[in-house]
Design a protein that fits this description.
Layout lengths: L1 H17 L16 E6 L2 E7 H6 L2 E5 L8 E5 L1 H8 L6 E5 L5 E4 H4 L3 E5 L5 E5 L13 E4 L2
Parallel strand pairs: 1-9
Antiparallel strand pairs: 1-2, 3-4, 5-6, 5-9, 7-8
């Protein structure tokens, strides 16, 4: 009995040390001190916390495809890229707790936002973006991956 309990304790401690790197999973505890990183050419262009994202110009978009809130509010993804100093954007990859999604520059021309959530994170959402391509708890935007 003791050896089984000891193994479980060690496995639990190992899982805490490894954290979100396993399978790209993001847990609630990982979101404490939430921030979004913008990368290009292998380097960090900028990092945004929630107050900084709220300081950017905000828009509201209608998203009837949403299973929840039919209106999303937050900064346009293009304005976040501009604030980060991204240049020559052809496509971007958005990573978070859902499978990563790649969008073309043409798709960014549509109304695509990083919408604020009740979990104090942002999610990728868009007027013409299929719900299956939304990404919850966005942690990274990579320019021209």
């Amino acid at each position: 009995m003791r050896s089984t309990a000891g193994r479980l304790l060690l496995l639990g401690m190992a899982a805490l040390l490894v954290g979100p790197g396993v399978g790209g999973c993001v847990t609630d505890s990982d979101l404490a001190g939430y921030h979004l990183v913008v990368r290009q050419d292998g380097r960090v262009l900028d990092t945004f916390d929630l107050p900084r994202l709220r300081d950017l110009p905000q828009i509201e978009i209608a998203t009837p495809q949403s299973r929840g809130n039919q209106v999303q509010r937050g900064p346009e993804l293009r304005s976040v890229l501009t604030a980060a100093g991204a240049a020559d954007v052809n496509r971007i990859r958005v990573q978070g707790s859902d499978p990563a999604q790649t969008l073309t520059a043409a798709e960014l021309a549509d109304r695509v936002v990083l919408s604020f959530t009740k979990r104090d994170t942002v999610k990728l959402a868009g007027v013409d973006l299929d719900r299956e391509r939304w990404v919850r708890d966005v942690t990274e935007v990579v320019v021209n991956p």
